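A.,

Following up on our hallway conversation. Structure tokens first:
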């Protein structure tokens, strides 16, 4: 398909730099293709009324690492330079693939120290060696620490890895340490947040349970590839990033039971949806899963497991907008996004959300 088919006008001021407070005060656009009216302007707090007893909400419980690091390059002779890094993929217990800015300041063999701004780990300053350089600012860092010690050090000196659309306009601060983490984050491993889950509060979860809606948790460690643009003119040339995830045997059984009893599977976020669809068999039964997925969902994809999707608003020409277009229909989503822009909805990670019906299920 042509990448240009997924383009639309998005004013820069529609990209939210801070979340709604409280979290469930954000707006919610219900998108119901084939119904009248096809669009409804709601708030997140209206979500329980949009669902039915027996429906099953599925959350991604990954926890975001403080994967944004600022370091000082050090070379023999005392030459220093500041460089920023976003960790994007753990290679082993001591090495991470990262994106460096500006990467031109680095060469293989350079030493980089972190924590020079006063934040240090228990063992002192975190340091690494540049082991390799790739294209597009990609570098491999081999850290002096390894295992849990390295994880603790990164947590001590790092910041939350805000998406580039936010990070280019303001620096991360301590408010982001809470704002960019869902309330059900449990398992460390993500370098980007499953942002649809950011809208939930304990009060909202209690309201959902009181309405007979069950809550379930899967894990997909979101990678920085979620921010990568689709290059080229044709979607066939895009290689989808791979992410690791798990669905327990108990969760798979509970979801299959809910659907067998007439309930709908409602994915909270595109990451939960991609994992569920990866784990589903041809009959739509969700199987226990542990592994990686690089599922790239485009219009024409036949959904097997997920009946409804709650997700934030995505950027033009992105794989995420392609996914929602596959779910509810390209023309439906273009109309919904045009309405959202005209109505002042806030886009992307800290923005508002939409609740989508599946096109063929409408």
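Then the amino acids I'd put at each of the 362 positions:
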């Amino acid at each position: 398909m042509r990448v240009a088919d997924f383009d639309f006008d998005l004013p820069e001021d529609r990209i939210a730099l801070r979340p709604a407070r409280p979290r469930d005060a954000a707006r919610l656009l219900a998108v119901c293709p084939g119904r009248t009216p096809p669009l409804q302007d709601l708030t997140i707090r209206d979500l329980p009324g949009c669902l039915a007893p027996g429906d099953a909400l599925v959350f991604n419980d990954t926890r975001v690492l403080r994967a944004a690091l600022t370091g000082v390059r050090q070379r023999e002779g005392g030459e220093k330079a500041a460089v920023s890094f976003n960790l994007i993929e753990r290679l082993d217990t001591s090495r991470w693939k990262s994106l460096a800015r500006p990467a031109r300041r680095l060469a293989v063999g350079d030493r980089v120290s972190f924590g020079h701004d006063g934040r240090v780990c228990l063992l002192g300053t975190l340091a690494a060696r540049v082991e390799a350089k790739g294209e597009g600012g990609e570098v491999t860092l081999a850290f002096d620490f390894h295992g849990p010690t390295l994880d603790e050090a990164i947590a001590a000196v790092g910041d939350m890895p805000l998406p580039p659309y936010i990070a280019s306009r303001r620096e991360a601060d301590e408010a982001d340490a809470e704002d960019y983490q869902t309330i059900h984050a449990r398992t460390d491993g993500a370098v980007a947040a499953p942002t649809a889950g950011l809208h939930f509060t304990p009060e909202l979860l209690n309201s959902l349970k009181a309405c007979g809606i069950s809550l379930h948790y899967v894990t997909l460690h979101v990678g920085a590839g979620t921010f990568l643009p689709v290059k080229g003119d044709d979607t066939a040339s895009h290689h989808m990033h791979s992410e690791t995830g798990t669905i327990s045997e108990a969760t798979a059984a509970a979801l299959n039971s809910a659907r067998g009893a007439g309930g709908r599977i409602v994915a909270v976020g595109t990451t939960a949806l991609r994992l569920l669809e990866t784990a589903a068999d041809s009959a739509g039964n969700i199987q226990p899963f542990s592994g990686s997925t690089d599922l790239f969902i485009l219009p024409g994809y036949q959904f097997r497991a997920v009946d409804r999707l709650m997700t934030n608003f995505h950027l033009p020409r992105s794989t995420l907008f392609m996914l929602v277009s596959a779910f509810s229909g390209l023309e439906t989503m273009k109309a919904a996004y045009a309405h959202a822009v005209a109505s002042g909805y806030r886009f992307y990670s800290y923005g508002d959300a939409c609740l989508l019906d599946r096109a063929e299920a409408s």
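The mean pLDDT is 93. Curious whether your intuition agrees with the design.

B.
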